[in-house]
Amino acid sequence: MFIDEIDSIAPRRGSRSSDSGVGDRVVNQLLTELDGIESLEGVTVIAATNRPDMIDPAIMRPGRIDRNVEVEVPDVEARRKIFEVHTRDMPVSSDVDLDDLAEETEGFVGSDIESVCREAGMDALRNDGDAAEVTKDDFMGAIDDVRPTATEDNLERYRSMMKRMDKVEDTKETPDYFG
User: Fold this and answer.
1) Per CATH, which fold does 76-145 belong to?
2) Residues 140-149 pLDDT 10s
């Protein structure tokens, strides 16, 4: 079972004062359900988030979701492969070089590259309603329009958050992610 954006359904209990305790009850029910999955054979729960600091720590206890796998920002080779996926069914002009696009998109993550491809396709149609192909100029315009997620400020904030989380894991302290 895959739960995307788990931080939205399993935030730290007590962190929302305006929801009359509904959020806490949802987290408690999720914990109960995760505990029950242990007895089910062949069921694995995988969850994803961009905000691990927002997840209730009880979710990460053994027998629930007890492993943390950090997915790095894609390197140039990975970005090229992501471009391949998102241009597979797209009519692309012969002047488009995926290696060049991968080089031009440092700091872009998968969703950013997906946006670049979608925007390039839209640019092609905006420029020529009868466009048969997406050109290099369409892609370069889209790269200029789409901002990369992995900016240095964003990465530094994330590294700092992960260091605080590692420190908490080492000492078993109650985390103070916001202090």
Assistant:
1) Helicase, Ruva Protein; domain 3 (1.10.8)
2) 999 999 999 8
Please tell me the distance from the alpha carbon of residue 103 to that of residue 101, in angstroms, as a whole number. Answer: 5
CB distance 168 to 150 below 8 Å: no
Residue 164 has pLDDT above 80, yes or no: no
pTM: 0.69
CA dist 162 and 106 (Å) reads: 22
Q: Closest Cα partner for 122 from 90, 152, 97?
A: 90
Q: Which CATH superfamily is domain 2-71 in?
A: P-loop containing nucleotide triphosphate hydrolases (3.40.50.300)
Contact call for residues 74 and 118 (beta carbons, < 8 A): no
Place of tokens 């988030």: 49
What does the domain layout of the chain look like in residue ranges? 2-71, 76-145
Secondary structure (3-state) at 153 = helix
DSSP state of 70: P
What is the tens place of the pLDDT at every residue in 89-139? 999 999 999 999 999 999 999 999 999 999 999 999 998 888 899 999 999
How is residue 62 written in tokens? Answer: 């053994």
